[in-house]
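haha ok so turns out i had the wrong file open the whole time. this is the CORRECT one, sorry everyone. sequence first:
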Amino acid sequence: MSPDSSTRFEKTTELTADSLTLIEGLPGLGLVASIAVDQITEQLGLEQHGSIVSDDFPSVAAFEEGRVRDAVRVYAGEDPAVMTLQSDVPIPPTAVESLSRCVLSDVADEFERAVFLAGAPAESEEEIGEVTGVATTDQLEASLTDAGITLADGSGVVGGVTGALLNDCYRNDVPAAVLLVRSNPYIPDPGAARAVIEDALEPLVDFDIDTQELLEQAEEIQQQKQQIAEQLQQYQQQQEPDPRTAGMYQ
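then structure:
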């Protein structure tokens, strides 16, 4: 169990698959991770494996199709061996550390490697969907290169919950990579989500996802995700800007 008892993983099924890849889909810039992982979970028919509950999460009730559900959930499947982490609400800054520790202490034993997604603001329309990668191990760096994913140039910082998860994986020798996706910084971006699935996740994780509906239903998806985007923006505005993190992705 997590050292922070206020945040814990409540497992509801048992897994027999080996070598699972965790794909993180928590709300961040452009909601690229959230949109992409929603699509992956649905298309692969992943079943809910458990939930992460915490006193640090917002006091809200999430629901879908008329039924209440936990806001932060873990899904998994065995063919392909994929696990996803999803949330119906942005993770507030006060909950980032406890959530990351919970994932590392309660969930990490069940996956072999983790792939995190971080939005990076696109400076032009042409940049949207460009993907670069950062790895914690030589093996994952080679996997990124083999998948045709360009390694990120220079230096930078990954912030927010994705940065916390990536750093905890690095510190605890859990192989992990982050895919930095150029996206629209102002609205939910299904186009960038489609690009990261097709150009990075499919070759890296070795599955096939039909992303056509991300184009066909782009406006509907943007409307569905707009409330989460507004909540995320409020959290970001509450934090004092730090000049040392000018190159931060989250």
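Residues 7-249 form a domain with the Rossmann fold fold (CATH 3.40.50.10900).
again sry for the mixup
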